Amino acid sequence: MKKTILITASIFGFLAVALGAFGAHGLEKLVSPEAVNTFETGVRYQMYHAIFLFVLALIPGIKEQAQRIVYGLTVIGVVFFSFSIYLLALNSITQFEFKTIGFITPIGGTLLLGAWGYLGYQLYSSKIK
């Protein structure tokens, strides 16, 4: 599980840097400044959670089942939250109306909150000193 978490963290981090560079250097020519800001929010939260996954993999004493739950909540949360934000920010340059799927953004945010909360609970109830 640890290796899976670390690989996912690396992929999320890599994509956050690549998408952040695109947002900073290419996106501003295609969409409004507000859309660029929105896009950057998705990148920022994706990077936060890439780092979160690295930390999750390296915390000693967390049961594997708890790691799996936090990992699942985080991965689905990032995909729903950040990736829906990317699509919403690019809405003006696509044929598809991504606003119709905008409802998944807060679901993703809720899943991310759940990951943090569940990890906090696991740390609180663990025997880690």
TrEMBL record:
Transmembrane portions of the chain: 44-62, 69-89, 101-121
Q: Where in the cell is it found?
A: Membrane
> Which key words tag this protein in UniProt?
Membrane, Transmembrane, Transmembrane helix
Query: What domain of life does the native source organism fall in?
Result: Bacteria
Q: How does it sit in the membrane?
A: Multi-pass membrane protein
Question: InterPro entries attached here?
Answer: DUF423 (IPR006696)
Please give the Pfam families that the UniProt record associates with this protein: DUF423
Coarse class of the primary localization is membrane
Decide whether keyword Membrane is in the record.
yes
Write down what this protein is called: DUF423 domain-containing protein
